Amino acid sequence: MLRRTLMAASRSTGVRKAVETVPVSRRVVARFIAGTRTEDALHAARHLMAEGFAVSLDRLGENTRDRAGAEAARTACTDLLQALARTGLAARTEISVKLSALGQLLPRDGQRTALDNARAVCEAARAAGTTVTLDMEDHTTTDSTLAVARALREDFPDLGVVLQAALLRTEGDCRDLAGPGSRVRLCKGAYDEPASVAHRTRRETDLAYVRCLGILMAGRGYPMVATHDPRLIRITKTLALGHGRAPGAYEHQMLYGIRPEEQLRLAAAGETVRIYVPYGDDWYGYFMRRLAERPANLVFFLRALATR
Ligand code: FAD
Question: With 0-12 CB in 10 A as exposed, 13-18 as middle and 19+ as buried, what is 289?
Fold first, then answer.
């Protein structure tokens, strides 16, 4: 119930204005977001790499409603990639991109616009010596995002794509995408989806996650295991051993600021661990999804409000 309310709030312009204007928000938000400027993102990436992590940078932004906004998002990504190349960070830092930021939801030619913009981003990533992963948004965008991914993978076979275990369709998508060279990030799914398309309980989603991960581990691609869930992390090790995959033949991924001790523990144990680092001004949707995942975060937010 609370989760549903927070997810509804994440789409409300009124609540957005209220949260963004509360001065304390930025302090609380800093727990999950590396900063607002490109330099903040580069600083975080440098620091994480020094600790032994790989990184995926996400310049926050989603649901762009006009062509100029989509072009601005594309330019921000290509500028970031050039900065990664200049600073020598591209070797272990890729970028994550939301197609809705690149124009996917435009009323006319949205998918084509997102594809063209994403292609420009992939070209810039190749020039910088790194890769791109397409984030996955709510289920109304899944077909379109996978269609764009298929088109891009013809020219950029190292393109990563995200699948969400919560969706009923995802075991099939895992089978389709488990082929040689494919990079698939498996997550539980951060959106409040209807029962017609998604598992509605945590237990069902967790069981689906294990089945999906089994398919990816048995396949010939590169599974990117995006979860903080201790049980799923243990199961990952078992599945990897069972399928003869050493660390480096798959990777763990976690979000900036979430379970940092576990991130360090896994890296110290020799696992490849990539930290997803969001940055930028457009933090509202991302922040609300993190609140919705964990009621304790809401308490933290409210306590900070009360003590300001
Ligand atoms: P949970 O069962 O939610 O959490 C397990 C434990 O992790 C919790 O008990 C808690 O200790 C800790 N934890 C989890 N979330 C939080 C939090 N917000 N604050 C504090 N502690 C927390 N979702 C998408 O829909 N599309 C994407 O493209 C996408 N990309 C992602 C990329 C990465 C690298 C990661 C790690 C996640 C991504 N997600 C994405 C989010 C994902 O779908 C989940 O919503 C999120 O990871 C929480 O699920 P969990 O697997 O960690 O399990």
Answer: middle
